[in-house]
Amino acid sequence: MRHPLDDVLIATLPAAEVYAVGGRVRDEFRTTLDAVERPPKDLDYVVTGIGQDALLEALRAVGRVDVVGASFAVLKFRHPAGEADIALPRRERSTGVGHREFTIESGPEIPLSDDLARRDFRMNMIARRLVDDAVVDPYGGIADIQAGRIDVVTAAAFEEDPLRLLRAAQFAARFGYEPTARTRDAMRAAAPLVVTVSGERIGEEVAKLFSAPKPSVGLEILRETGVLAGIWPELLEGIEVDQNDWHAYDVYRHNLATLDAAPAGDLTLRLAALLHDVAKPRTVSPRADGRGNAFHQHEHVGAELIPPMLARLRLPNETVETVAHLVRQHMYSADPDAQDRTLRRFIRRIGPGNLDRLFALRRADIAGSGLPKRDDSNERFEARIDVVLAERPAFSVADLALSGSDVIAIFERTGAAEPGFRGDARVGEVLRALFEEVTDDPSRNEAGLLAERAERYVDEHFSVSGR
What we know:
Blueprint: H1 4-12, E1 17-21, H2 23-34, E2 44-48, H3 52-60, E3 64-68, E4 74-79, E5 82-87, E6 90-94, E7 102-106, H4 112-117, E8 127-129, E9 135-136, H5 141-147, E10 149-150, H6 157-160, H7 163-175, E11 178-179, H8 181-190, H9 199-209, H10 216-224, H11 228-231, H12 233-236, H13 251-261, H14 267-275, E12 284-286, E13 293-295, H15 298-311, H16 317-329, H17 340-350, H18 355-367, H19 377-390, H20 404-413, H21 425-440, H22 447-461
Parallel strand pairs: 2-5, 10-11
Antiparallel strand pairs: 1-2, 1-8, 3-4, 4-5, 6-7, 8-9, 12-13
């Protein structure tokens, strides 16, 4: 697929050869197989036949250029047509563990094939010359794409860069490709090195994995090759932990099935789906009726496990907190015949913004049980919740028709506080008391009624005469 920046580079570097490389080229060949258009997300180019100084001068004449790293010599090029990483051919050799120590040679004398060879998998070792679309494929990457396989040129690929262990898994899940036996063997050999990868990088690859139609494919590859034990050992605790009559799978496979059943595109929801029962192995006990195991309070224990687990992936605090909240609440009782005030309290506890995710988690949990759905009580409960939401009752103190400033004024007017009172914990106490009343009877959320009730509460609890 042609990009406007391609023409800019051809015109700017007429004496050089400019090649598109990386995932863009790989995806172009995927498109020839399935006719699914994949606009390039990242633009990467390798330029041959020109030196570094001349390349810099030419690019700076038409756009902004920043050099990233003296060793890597990657040029960050910004132009109205787009942004790209541009580099001369490079050859690198690992001299340490975890892709942290290596030597790099860069320059026009380095063969393009050497530059391609330093990439992770054969399917990513393809280049396309912009001027005539000539393809350079020295390592059989096109054949791998056509066969749907993930293969390495050398077994040392994962030792050179252990992040590739995660990349292999997420590519397999996202593309539906199968790692070759050589790739799996190399992953097993290098699996202990995954602990050298930064949490941020692992988190990025996990997010990509969870965007796949069936993330369990990638997680199973990580488990089978020993990588998962190094990044997420808690998941493995569920293997062969039997459940009860309401589940067809052990805890581990139930969690994976629930993950797959959760809608793609929502990382927070999918994390909650994978982790909703993560604490079951730590709370297991035989059921009194002999029908398998029980897992008392596993939702609360699981919610406590989540922050340290997800902290290892350096995920945003908001994501971590929401996942923990969903896990803590996922065992809610879906009673479609509950009173309205009970439903309002449920909405308060969950938070209106979390309801859709919690209901989606329940649906995924049921699908992940491996057994037929028993009844429609969840659907009827959700319908009741929709009716309550449509009535727009107060779901927080902020929704009250009386504000904190109003309550402060009542304290002053009744003499429970001196003039100039700026508020303290007593104001919050009054508002919370009013909120409880409004939750029970939404019709009371009217400024006049609340003011009367607030004044009475202040008089009973905080006035000089009421003490």
